[in-house]
């Protein structure tokens, strides 16, 4: 339900409510969504808030308007698979034929922060490789990824060229760390720093997607703890050869 005590705009919370009903199957493709008045009464919000949320969902492809009939559910648009797979950003974009690039913001060996150590199952005094990158799609900044990997698993990895090489490819092909399974959690948040606002090119009041996860080898050894801050909306121009 909508919570007025958190710093996330009401329209964005309504968007997440409707998306949740679509993705859980409560609302099926072809179903009409509740009327503006019904949504206003259910969530105790203004008509302007309802209209802003619905327009955003129409823009994202979740909903469509039919003149004189109402607003209906489309099939949910496909999400970027790299946040839900082990392929990684660069590999997924390359397979889709979409131009992507990377700017390395930080790459260093550091003592593991407490939370990082907990996620990786190592002692806090152990060293980790920290790789922070800004990722672009067709020259548009899309996400900031911040990865932590136990340094004992990948000696001298800080010397690699991560603007032209994939982290996951290096882990698998050079260090024989076969990524097998993992878990990622998703949460809408507001930008937490001036750096995020500037790097992603968003307003301080524009919600973004926060992704946090751990990737493991087949035997359950944690290899990567990653935090991602991702723009909620961006555009990709597709060529015919990349549409599958």
Structural commentary:
The protein has 244 residues and is α+β, with helices and mostly antiparallel strands. The chain contains seven helices and eight strands; from the N terminus they run αααββαβαββαβαββ. The longest helix is centred in the first third of the chain and has 15 residues. A hairpin with a 3-residue loop joins strand 1 and strand 2. It has a six-stranded antiparallel beta sheet with strand order 3-4-5-8-7-6. Strands 1-2 form a two-stranded antiparallel sheet. Helix 1 crosses helix 3. The chain has two domains: 64 residues, Winged helix-like DNA-binding domain superfamily/Winged helix DNA-binding domain (Arc Repressor Mutant, subunit A, Orthogonal Bundle), CATH 1.10.10.10; 153 residues, 3-Layer(aba) Sandwich (Chorismate lyase), CATH 3.40.1410.10.
Helix content estimate: 25-40%
Largest sheet: 6 strands, antiparallel
Shape summary: elongated
Q: Could you state the CATH homologous superfamily of the largest domain? A: Chorismate lyase-like
CA-atom Rg in angstroms: 20 Å
Supply database-style keywords.
single chain, 244 residues, alpha+beta, Arc Repressor Mutant, subunit A, Chorismate lyase, 2 domains, 6-stranded antiparallel beta sheet, two-stranded antiparallel ribbon, 27% helix, elongated
Question: What's the gist of this structure?
Answer:
By secondary structure, the protein is of the alpha+beta class. The chain is built from seven helices and eight strands.
Secondary-structure topology with pairs:
Elements (H helix, E strand, L loop, with lengths): L9 H15 L11 H8 L3 H14 L2 E4 L3 E4 L15 H7 L4 E12 L2 H7 L6 E11 L2 E11 L16 H7 L7 E9 L4 H7 L7 E9 L5 E10 L13
Antiparallel strand pairs: 1-2, 3-4, 4-5, 5-8, 6-7, 7-8
């Amino acid at each position: 339900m909508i919570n007025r005590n958190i710093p996330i705009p009401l329209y964005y919370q309504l968007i997440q409510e409707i998306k949740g009903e679509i993705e859980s199957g409560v609302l099926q493709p072809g179903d009409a969504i509740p009327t503006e008045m019904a949504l206003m009464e259910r969530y105790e919000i203004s008509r302007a808030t309802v209209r802003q949320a619905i327009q955003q969902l129409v823009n994202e492809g979740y909903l469509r308007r039919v003149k004189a009939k109402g607003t209906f559910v489309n099939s949910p648009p496909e999400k970027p698979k790299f946040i839900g797979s082990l392929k990684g950003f660069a590999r997924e974009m390359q397979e889709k034929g979409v131009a992507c690039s990377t700017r390395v913001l930080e790459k260093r060996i550091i003592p593991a922060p407490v939370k990082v150590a907990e996620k990786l199952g190592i002692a806090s005094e152990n060293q980790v490789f920290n790789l922070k990158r800004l990722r672009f799609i067709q020259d548009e900044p899309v996400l900031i990824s911040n990865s932590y990997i136990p340094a004992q698993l990948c000696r001298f990895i800080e010397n690699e060229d991560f603007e032209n090489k994939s982290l996951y490819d290096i882990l698998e092909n050079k260090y024989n760390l076969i990524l097998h399974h993992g878990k990622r959690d998703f949460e809408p948040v507001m930008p937490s720093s001036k750096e995020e606002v500037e790097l992603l090119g968003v307003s301080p009041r524009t919600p973004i997607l926060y992704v946090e996860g751990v990737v493991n080898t087949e035997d359950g050894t944690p290899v990567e703890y990653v935090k991602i801050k991702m723009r909620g909306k961006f555009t990709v121009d597709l060529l015919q050869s990349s549409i599958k």
